[in-house]
Design goal:
Elements (H helix, E strand, L loop, with lengths): L1 E3 L4 E4 L9 E3 L13 E2 L2 E4 L7 E6 L4 E10 L3 E14 L8 E11 L9 H5 L3 E8 L12 E4 L5 E6 L2 E6 L2 H4 L4 H4 L5 E2 L4 E4 L2 E3 L5 E6 L4 E6 L2 E6 L9 E3 L21
Parallel strand pairs: 5-10, 10-15
Antiparallel strand pairs: 1-2, 2-3, 3-4, 5-6, 6-8, 7-8, 8-9, 9-10, 11-12, 12-13, 13-16, 14-15, 17-18, 18-19, 19-20
Length: 264
C-alpha cells in the first residue's frame, strides 16, 4: 500500500505488481469526498495519427517538467506541465507490456505556481505511450516484478527472480515529442509514434527481493545472498560488489545486553 496527498489517497498493490491496481481518494468514510475503491485504469493513446486508446494501469509520475511563456489561442499565456510515468497494458497481449507514458497539463500563467507537483500529474486521465521497455514482462514467481526508478528518472531497473534489466534514457528528450530523432530507425515505429528502449542485463547470482537507486548510477538490491551494489557510472569497472549482512545474534561487535539482576 502507498499513501499520497498527505494521506488522503491510498494506493493498493497486488502482490508482485510494480503499479497499483486500486486506489481510494479518502481513508475517512465520514468525509463527503470519500469514495469506494476504484480500479486504476486509464485510456492511453497508442497511435500517432489515428487515435487508438487502450486501457492501462498508470503509476505515479516519476518525473515532471514545467514550461512557461507559452501561448494558447484560446487561453492566452499559459504554463505547461509534462509528466512521465510507467504504464502497463493488460490488453495488448505482447511479451513486453510495460511502457513509459506521458501526459501534459496546461495552466493559465496567472494561476500557475511554477512548481512541478507529481501528485497533480497522477490525476490526469489523458495519456499517450512514448516508449516500450523492450523485454520487460511480468514476473511469474512469488516475488513478481520488482521495479526501481532512479531519482532523476533516467534509469529504470526491473528484476524478475534473479534476472535484472536496466533501461537508460534521457527523460528531458523523451517527453518533447520528436521521438523519431531520439530513437534509432530500427527502434522507432512512425505509425504509432512509439520508440523501443533496449535494456542492459546485469550480472547477478542471487534472487532479487528489493532494489533502490541511491543516485543515477548506483543501484542496490537485497537478495537471498545479501546486499548487492551495481555501479553504472562512467568510471565503473563493470564488476559487481557483494556486501554481506551479519546474521549472528551475538557477533563480537554487538552491544552487550544490559545486566538485569546481575544476569545477562
Amino acid at each position: 500500500m502507498q499513501f499520497l496527498r498527505k494521506d488522503k489517497t491510498l494506493n493498493f498493490f497486488k502482490p508482485g505488481h510494480p503499479v497499483h491496481s486500486y486506489f481510494t481518494n479518502s481513508c475517512d468514510p465520514e468525509k463527503p469526498d470519500s469514495r469506494p475503491w476504484q480500479e486504476n485504469r486509464v485510456l492511453v493513446d497508442v497511435e500517432k495519427d489515428d487515435e487508438y486508446w487502450l486501457k492501462f494501469a498508470v503509476g505515479m509520475p516519476f518525473i515532471g517538467f514545467h514550461f512557461d511563456n507559452l501561448t494558447d489561442p484560446r487561453h492566452g499565456r499559459i504554463c505547461r506541465y509534462s509528466y512521465l510515468a510507467i504504464g502497463i497494458s493488460e490488453t495488448l497481449g505482447l511479451r513486453s507490456n510495460v511502457f513509459i507514458v506521458q501526459t501534459d497539463r496546461d495552466v493559465p500563467e496567472s494561476q500557475c505556481k511554477h512548481m512541478v507537483d507529481l501528485e497533480k500529474g497522477r490525476r490526469s486521465t489523458n495519456w499517450k505511450a512514448v516508449a516500450l521497455l523492450a523485454g520487460c514482462g511480468r514476473g511469474t514467481s512469488s516475488l513478481g516484478t520488482v521495479m526501481a526508478i532512479s531519482p532523476g528518472g533516467g534509469r529504470i531497473a526491473v528484476a524478475t527472480w534473479d534476472r535484472v534489466l536496466v533501461w537508460t534514457f534521457d527523460p528531458s528528450l523523451l517527453h518533447e515529442g520528436s521521438l523519431e530523432h531520439y530513437f534509432p530507425e530500427r527502434d522507432y515505429n512512425p505509425k504509432k509514434g512509439i520508440g523501443r528502449l533496449r535494456p542492459t542485463k546485469l550480472s547477478t547470482e542471487g534472487v532479487i527481493h528489493s532494489m533502490l537507486w541511491v543516485d543515477e548510477t548506483n543501484l542496490y538490491a537485497t537478495t537471498d545472498k545479501g546486499l548487492v551494489q551495481w555501479d553504472m557510472g562512467h568510471w565503473s569497472d563493470g564488476e559487481r560488489e557483494d556486501l554481506s549482512l551479519a546474521y549472528d545474534a551475538w557477533p563480537e561487535t554487538a552491544v552487550e545486553m544490559p545486566n538485569v539482576n546481575g544476569n545477562m
